[in-house]
Amino acid sequence: MEATKKHFFSDMNVMLGRSMRHIFRSMDTIITVTIMPIGFMLLFVYVFGGAIQTGTDNYVNYLLPGILLIAIASGISYTSYRLFIDVQGGIFERFHSMPIARSTVLWGHVLSSLVSNALSVVVIIVAALMMGFRSSAGVLPWLAVASILMLFTLALSWVAVIAGLSAKSVDGAGAFAYPIVFLPFISSAFVPTESMPPIVRAFAENQPVTAIVEAIRALLSGQPVGNDIWIALAWCIGITIVAYIFAMRAYKKRV
């Protein structure tokens, strides 16, 4: 047991490398996850953008934070899918017969989710720059944005682990992501919440995506962030902790 704990990080590095090799051998997953959000961005900017009143002259700037969250929410479905395939293929049993830290099997999938989603985010930001996105933010605000996106990805990745361990079919492993992808549409990601009916507005203003979107939008535009960043961090950290606990319980039942 002591040797297993001692080599936790080296074991985790091996599992991360294994998961990343699977991703790079199937780049269509990253491409698919990236194309859909870019398609949404093109649609809303060049088709709907002229009819949407957001109080800003550059709708791409307003839209980008929500598009990034949609990309991440789409990407984590593949984390759940790959984990489900490992479970069904008996890979876990092989790993458990080796002297490795068992939790590193899950961490490999979670960390590869962080890396692959980061690649998607970079590609989408480049596409947004080509569409006219501009930011006056300095290095520190950009680092803050990167940290929020990383925490958001980490939180959803552990939710994906629960789905991957609990699903009964391949379709079920990825289906959990659909409601999460839909959340940005009922938030301030595309339109101000003031334009929504009272019930919808109440939900939109009190769900995690709105706080995260508002915090990222303020950071990128160089505006005061206010309490949104703390609410966003609280949501991300809270979801991560709860999802991690339930993921570990599901893992222990599975093994």
UniProtKB/TrEMBL annotation:
Q: How does it sit in the membrane?
A: Multi-pass membrane protein
GO molecular function annotation: ABC-type transporter activity
Q: Does the keyword Cell membrane apply?
A: yes
**Which InterPro entries does the UniProt entry name for this protein?**
ABC2_TM, ABC2_TM_bact-type, ABC_2_transport, Nod_factor_ABC_transporter
Q: Where in the cell is it found?
A: Cell membrane; Membrane
One Gene Ontology cellular component term attached to this UniProt record is:
ATP-binding cassette (ABC) transporter complex
Annotated ABC transmembrane type-2 domain ranges read 28-254
Q: Where are the transmembrane segments?
A: 30-50, 62-84, 105-133, 139-161, 173-191, 229-247
Which keywords belong to this entry?
Cell membrane, Membrane, Transmembrane, Transmembrane helix, Transport
Q: From what superkingdom does this record's organism come?
A: Bacteria
Per the record, the similarity remark reads: Belongs to the ABC-2 integral membrane protein family.
Task: Please give the name of this protein.
Answer: Transport permease protein
Q: Which organism is it from?
A: Acetobacterium paludosum
